[in-house]
Amino acid sequence: MKILLPYDITTTGMKNPYLFLLARELVRNRNIESVQCGYGWLYEDIKADIIHLHWPELLVKSKLADMSRIDLLKDFHFDQLTHALEEKKSQGAKIILTVHNEAPHKGKSDQFQKLYGTVFQLADGIIHMGKASKEITDQNYTAETAGKPFFIIPHGNYKIFDNSLSKEECRAKLSLKPEEKLLLSFGAIRSAKELDFGIRAFKEASVENSLFMMAGQLPHPYKSQPVHFATRKKLYANMFNKQIRTVEKVIEPAEVQIYLNAANLLFIQRFNTLNSGNVALGYTFGKVVVGPDYGVIGEELKKCGNPVFNPYKIETVTAAIKEGLLLAENGLGEKNREYAEREMSWDSIAEKTVHAYQTLLSQ
Questions:
Q1: Nearest residue to 202 via CA among 168, 140, 248, 244
Q2: Where are the alpha helices (DSSP H) in 68-185?
Q3: Cα–Cα distance between 16 and 21 in angstroms, integer?
Q4: Could you tell me which residues come within 8 angstroms of residue 66 by beta carbon, excluding any fewer than 6 positions away?
Q5: Which of 158, 181, 218, 320 could disulfide-link to 264, CB 3.0 to 4.6 Å?
Q6: CA-based nearest residue to 100, from 43, 139, 58
Q7: Mean of the per-residue pLDDT values for the chain?
Q8: Tens-digit pLDDT profile for residues 4-38
Q9: In terms of Cα–Cα distance, which of 232, 165, 210 is closest to 318?
Q10: Are the C-beta atoms of residues 18 and 12 closer than 8 Å to each other?
Q11: Is there a common fold for 2-156+345-361 and 167-342?
């Protein structure tokens, strides 16, 4: 089989190595003849048996010199993508889509909503990371997904990240005292609403000898924007107590272990988000993970006995944080690590993915 992954995996791999890890295992699979990666190949005259799509919005953003300038997207950008996919299908290629999000994290315009519907309509099969993903997707895109084959394939683990430093060494690098309990929020926080939510949850939980650290990009990062300071007003007011800390940057791969190994608990600072790589990341590093009871996040956390919460009921959030810290002291983190090794291995994910490809090609 010849597979086309129309994404620049080097670029996406800098922040999230998901596609690189998938492609690496597909290349090693005995049933795969080739794996071609790159945005441009979708528009070239090459033979592909399977076109494996992931984030539809990236396929149109890739046409821009600056992918952040979604205000420059025009109808013809979307039309070009649709035409390219239709052309590949007419040449015999099967399209499969892995569902990562209900909608783009940024730029949730009518154009992108229509794009998602178009891609679901063109897809010959759909991969979900959990049963909740299928249920939610079928509700949102009933006509587009009706009768199509689907496959449940979980998110893979993050063993690619270095994990050679001890907990003590990592905590020393973050200047943490032995008795301090670190609640970690890792990765980009996408809105002021999420930022305020994390601060309130930590303060309401009021855990003795605890710190809250947000490591990753914060919303509105540019100081030239007035909203930058308005967004951070509440954050700055709370940081004077030194119990709330921020590391406002994209965390380098070599630094990931420092934050994860130092943490007592990983907190998914989201509302209703379908999937989060932080579940797999926390499990990989043997952490108890606390997150919203929604989508695949809630499904996976409950499956392994990790606490979940209703983000609109703060008392459930604070209870989950306290329960999570207790579970961490009683060894749940190690069970999560074993689960990541057993159920989230990339060789297993590749085998299931190839089976999905074969199923489509046999129809």
A1: 244
A2: 75-90, 110-122, 131-140, 142-145, 167-173
A3: 10
A4: none
A5: 181
A6: 58
A7: 93
A8: 999 988 755 556 799 999 999 999 999 999 999 99
A9: 210
A10: yes
A11: yes
* Record: fold of 167-342: Rossmann fold (3.40.50)
What is this structure's pTM?
0.93
Starting at the edge strand found earlier in the chain, the sheet holding 308-309 runs: 244-247, 210-215, 181-186, 265-267, 289-292, 308-309
**Which CATH fold would you assign to the domain 2-156+345-361?**
Rossmann fold (3.40.50)
Buried-exposed string 106-128: b where 16+ CB fall within 10 A, e elsewhere = eeeeebbeebbbbbbebbbbbbb
Q: Rounded to whole angstroms, what are the CA distances from 266 to 137, 173, 184, 228, 301?
A: 27, 18, 5, 26, 12
Per-residue pLDDT tens digits for 266-325: 999 999 899 999 999 999 999 999 999 999 999 999 999 999 999 999 999 999 999 999
**What is the domain partition of the chain in residue ranges?**
2-156+345-361, 167-342
**Mean pLDDT along residues 222-243:** 81
pLDDT at 221: 79
Q: If DSSP codes are grouped into helix, strand and coil, which group holds residue 326?
A: helix
Rounded to 5 degrees, what angle do the CA atoms 244, 248, 254 make? 110
Residue 98 burial (CB count, 10 A): 23
Q: What pLDDT score does 336 carry? A: 98
